[in-house]
Amino acid sequence: MTPREEPADRNLALDLARVTEAAAMAAARFQGRGDKESVDQAAVDAMRAILDTIDMDGLVVIGEGEKDDAPMLANGERVGNGSPPAVDVAVDPVDGTRLTAEGMPGALAVLALSGRGTMYAPGRLVYMDKIAVGEQAAGVIDLDAPVDHNLDRVARALGKDIDDLTAIILDRPRNQPYIDAVRKAGARIRLIRDGDISGAIATAVPDSGIDILFGIGGSPEAVTAACALLCLGGEIQCRLWPRDDSERDYANEAGLDLDQIIGIHDLVDSEDVFFAATGVTTGELLDGVRFIPNGAETHTVVMRSKTGTVRFIRAHHRFDRLSKITSAYDGVIQG
Predict the structure, then answer these.
(1) Does pTM surpass 0.85?
(2) What one-character DSSP code corresponds to residue 186?
(3) Is 33 left (phi over 0), alpha (psi -120 to 50) or beta?
(4) pLDDT tier at 123, thresholds 50, 70, 90
(5) Count of CB atoms within 10 A of residue 38's CB?
(6) Does the N-terminal peptide bond of residue 85 adopt cis geometry, omega within 30 degrees of 0?
(7) What is the gyration radius of the CA atoms in the chain, in angstroms?
């Protein structure tokens, strides 16, 4: 490993909480209105405005737009005020824009940091095959193994029977083989329409009711989820999943091994990772934004891998006071 600047001793995740709170409140204004683009744009605008106030020299490595032409916090964009530390940034202004637009549960505003040069960049290969578990089952999973084998190993690690396990799977036709295999093995399934960052994290959160994640989902989401799982002691394994011959050709040209199992430390090669997520709509992990007269209440989780500290924060925001000190919340306040 080459020497690189280590993030400052202050807990940057606490600074990031302000960013994800602002993004969540802005996105939540459009909950249930059926407009994905407005959800994303509002979150991006709020997130960028607060990011510019954070003491860091951030480079967006995992950003928006590659997969779905969303409003950009683009790969390669610089964020923060330019002060040290130099960090890689993984950002998803709303993991679950469709969930928010349709008034469905489980959407999050997400942000993660690690030292410069430590995050995996999948480029144009925007999907990965994934398996993820929490700390008790870390070290027993194998992406190459059959589903029933992984379920048996995880059940043993958790002290459960297979039929007591719950697997979370993104509900897509490409994941039907996983769904069929989990059902055949006798485990329970929680299908989700979107939001596999939240799904991966839920495997490592006590009392979430989720034991393992299977399935093909976004590559950016895999890197972002890996940041949280490093903080929580969990594990994720992935493999790049090209959709067509053009993506296979791109992988060959870029020197990407389509057969490689990409482990958690391949995704984020850092011992000091910061993660923050705020609920947009209520889900397994966090409660959604609740608007109240002249304000809002938010529910946020912040983590740091170096210390293993995980904080859940319930915040009460006063729009009349925020409007006096910054214009960053204008979109949130005006709705």
Answers:
(1) yes
(2) T
(3) alpha
(4) confident
(5) 18
(6) yes
(7) 19
